[in-house]
Amino acid sequence: MLEAGHSHRTWDVLTQMPAALRMVIGNSLYDRRYASEPEPHMDARRVNHERDRLLVGSSSINGVISKRGNPRAALERWASDPGTEVWDCARCLPFSKRMEPCVAETCEWRGQGAARELRQSVPVGYDTGERLPGHSVETGGEIPAWFAQDAETAYHPSCAARLSTDQLSVPYPEPPRPHGVERLRVVAAPAAPSFDNANIYAPVTRPAEKSTESSLGSTPLPPFTAGFHHYRAQEV
Ligand SMILES: Cc1cc2nc3c(=O)[nH]c(=O)nc-3n(C[C@H](O)[C@H](O)[C@H](O)COP(=O)(O)OP(=O)(O)OC[C@H]3O[C@@H](n4cnc5c(N)ncnc54)[C@H](O)[C@@H]3O)c2cc1C
């Protein structure tokens, strides 16, 4: 495994406390502090790309928000290019199920029930009023200009080197490896062809697990076969 990050220090609470992410972002001990080239569609701004300096990557400093996302929306799109069929929902969702122990009843969409301590939580009130972009941006014409001035990746840069078989792609889809290189595997957020609107750590881990297992020659997990429910307005 190629890894330039340094080891975790057990005394370092900043890497063990999800709420500490604001204290490590921008700190060069933890964050590589990358920035993009001036972005032509973002008012020529350089957009920050916070990336971890530690072993196992950005999960060492991330916020630990874990969302499966909408696997059908994301994965069926991944699998729609020629050669990328193995990344469909049927073959990838079992890895989500395995990684997500569930305190609720086991069902076809969820992993096995886990005996997990449920901590008493205090409801947090929040203001539902609009914060961004606010009332100074009202018309359809103003929104793209605000976006160019203000948008960022929110720590989720991805899809810059998508896997596929065409000439613009970087990794070949199966096994995921740089085109023309046989014995190197690439599984990371940039290789994803697309994501839906969930936080991406869990969706990145899903193909990483699948790819690791296939590289080790493990028997593939049984495919997910349950049907999908489509929402159609006229049925309501
Ligand atoms: C501050 C922050 C908060 C986040 N919060 C969340 C969250 O709450 N929920 C969520 O779902 N996602 C979150 N994310 C996003 C998520 O953590 C990343 O999208 C995900 O970890 C990306 O995985 P990756 O394997 O592509 O890259 P990384 O996890 O960044 O791994 C890249 C690895 O490559 C190594 N490396 C870098 N350069 C070299 C080199 N030259 N040679 C060898 N190795 C190298 C690094 O040390 C690192 O281990 C957050 C990210 C950040 C930065």
Detailed description of the structure:
- This protein is mainly alpha-helical and 236 residues long.
- The chain folds into 2 domains: 1-64, Glucose Oxidase, domain 2 (Irregular), CATH 4.10.450; 68-117 and 155-222, no CATH class.
- It has 5 helices and 4 strands, in the order αββαααββα.
- It has helices at residues 21-24, 71-78, 89-99, 142-150, 201-215; strands at residues 34-35, 48-49, 171-173, 176-178.
- Strands 1-2 form a two-stranded antiparallel ribbon.
- Strand 3 and strand 4 form a beta hairpin.
- Helix 3 packs across helix 5 (201-215).
- The longest helix is centred in the C-terminal third of the chain and has 15 residues, at 201-215.
- The termini are far apart.
- 17% of the residues are buried.
- It binds flavin-adenine dinucleotide (FAD).
- Flavin-adenine dinucleotide (FAD) binds next to helix 5.
Question: Any descriptors?
Answer:
4% strand; Glucose Oxidase, domain 2; globular; binds flavin-adenine dinucleotide; 4 strands; mainly alpha; 236 residues; two-stranded antiparallel sheet
| Backbone structural class | mainly alpha
Average of pLDDT: 86
Tell me the radius of gyration: 20 Å
What string gives the helices and strands in order?
A: HEEHHHEEH
First-to-last CA distance: 51 Å
> Order of strands across the widest beta sheet?
1-2
From the spread of the alpha carbons, the general shape counts as globular
- Number of E-state strands: 4
